[in-house]
């Protein structure tokens, strides 16, 4: 077998707010197909790290590469347009549109990038075939076919969450970024979301930023623990659970 391919890499990634260092020389290497979670106590720098990777914030120092390309200076939209990453923060459910229309829009966002749909259609008349194909695949993968023509505003809570995941997958991303996707959910909803991740995101490269340690222990291949902006440890859930430095970070944090 070939060596694992690193899809997402951060090198010396640092974000300072004035004299305060929120993310401090973070090196991450996430392999293709890996489910990586980032945990840490409040204020550890998880959200800031997520914002740096998604492009919502510019690092003070360090670099970010996706599939070997340096994206440090690219905007969030350019990171998506370059087929590189996609996050919930960048997707919107349009309530007035059907499930299928929402998915088509997400699929187009990737294919058309900044170009208008009409211009792109002239440039690539076959483009819509790919969009239809990807829309159908996502409808089936997520069990949304029965509600394909329902208006998004009429969806049950569970179907709406599935549609949000579907919007991410419709862009056929290289890396899926998830920012506390179960925040505000009940236990049952959280369990359903975890099952969905295990099902639908199994093949994807995922970076999950999350404070729910139980969830992270269940779904992750590897976990990176942050404290005070720095990486404390990276390892499998078993390794992290047994790591004294991780325990100290939480109890001392
Ligand atoms: P976490 O998500 O792990 O709770 P954050 O990344 O939100 O941590 O925050 C890390 C630290 O950076 C916190 O001390 C927070 O107050 C600080 N911080 C985050 N964003 C800003 C900002 N825009 N300006 C100043 N300080 C910030």
Automatic annotation (TrEMBL):
GO terms for molecular function: ATP binding; ATP hydrolysis activity. It comes from the Archaea. The lineage of its organism: Archaea, Methanobacteriati, Methanobacteriota, Stenosarchaea group, Halobacteria. This is ABC transporter ATP-binding protein. SUPFAM superfamilies: P-loop containing nucleoside triphosphate hydrolases. InterPro entries: AAA+_ATPase (IPR003593), ABC_AA/LPS_Transport (IPR051120), ABC_transporter-like_ATP-bd (IPR003439), ABC_transporter-like_CS (IPR017871), BCA_ABC_TP_C (IPR032823), P-loop_NTPase (IPR027417). PANTHER family: ABC TRANSPORTER ATP-BINDING PROTEIN, CONSERVED COMPONENT OF ABC TRANSPORTER FOR NATURAL AMINO ACIDS-RELATED. Residues 8-253 form the ABC transporter domain. It holds the Pfam family BCA_ABC_TP_C. Keywords: ATP-binding, Nucleotide-binding, Transport. GO terms for cellular component: plasma membrane.
